[in-house]
Specification:
Distance between the termini: 66 Å
Number of strands: 2
Shape: rod-shaped
Number of helices: 8
Strand order of the largest sheet: 1-2
Structural class: mainly alpha
Largest sheet: 2 strands, antiparallel
Radius of gyration: 47 Å
Length: about 260
């Protein structure tokens, strides 16, 4: 493949198939015409012999100076030299007959089938190349969009935290302290989804919330404290009191302050 240089794989395949198809067409053309029409030229010279290997046919000179080759009756029995092409054994004239019509029809059908197959292969390869070019263009555009989106994600996360502050505070202040802390932590997932940050398949809800806050560059101190309170409320058996709720409110206020969101 070094002869192709830096050509893309699709273009290499098109060139290889086109060359193979051209070779097949030339072979079919040569078969249809026959070797006598394809290979022309004087050909090898016959070897000269010092003694005749056959009996020459008798030649009669006419009154006008022309000559006539006579075909003897025993031309098939004795080693005479070859008679003219228009005569065969016994003096019969040789008639060159064209090939049967069905052979010509069969040959043209085969050529038409081959041409249709070549055209189908070329169209398929062209479609494959166009699909690859379109896919590369889409991937390039997606990478550009993702690059801009990643740069804009912290701002959008902070905006969603600010827009959802009232609802998150309401969840944390109302009801049982245990359920309130769990609901307030899960609210970060809603804010991340609204900001356009998709959750990964391998992430738990807690890991996703931590990634959202880390993406927005929130202060690690209040984030870790609120995460500890969430795990304690979610998985521990001991009582969760109003003191825990107050600590959670303070940690949430610290997170918003680090994001530039006024509580």
């Amino acid at each position: 493949m070094r002869a192709f240089g830096n050509w893309p794989p699709g273009l290499r395949a098109v060139v290889a198939v086109a060359g193979s198809c051209l070779l097949m067409v030339l072979v079919a053309w040569a078969t249809l015409l026959g070797p006598d029409e394809v290979f022309t030229g004087p050909g090898p010279r016959p070897a000269t012999a010092t003694t005749p290997t056959c009996i020459p046919l008798p030649v009669t000179t006419n009154a006008d100076g022309t000559t006539t080759v006579e075909i003897p009756d025993d031309v098939a029995e004795r080693p005479y030299c070859d008679p003219p092409l228009e005569f065969a054994e016994g003096g019969e004239e040789i008639v060159e007959r064209p090939p049967p019509l069905w052979t010509k029809v069969l040959m043209w059908v085969l050529l038409a089938t081959m041409a249709a197959g070549i055209a189908a292969i070329l169209l398929w390869l062209l479609a494959a190349v166009l699909r690859e070019v379109r896919a590369r263009r889409i991937r390039t555009e997606e990478r550009e969009d993702i690059g801009f989106a990643v740069l804009d994600e912290p701002v959008r996360v902070a905006e969603q935290v600010a827009a959802d502050a009232v609802e998150q505070d309401t969840l944390l202040r109302e009801g049982d302290p245990r359920n309130a802390i769990v609901a307030a932590w899960h609210r970060f997932e809603v804010q991340g989804e609204r900001a356009g940050v998709e959750r990964r398949m391998s992430e738990t809800s807690s890991e996703y919330a931590l990634r959202i806050l880390d993406l927005a560059d929130a202060d690690a101190g209040p984030v870790n404290r609120l995460a500890e309170l969430y795990r304690e409320a979610r998985f521990s058996d001991h009582a969760v009191t109003e003191d825990h709720r107050s600590e959670a409110l303070a940690a949430l206020a610290g997170i918003r302050q680090s994001l530039g969101v006024r509580t």
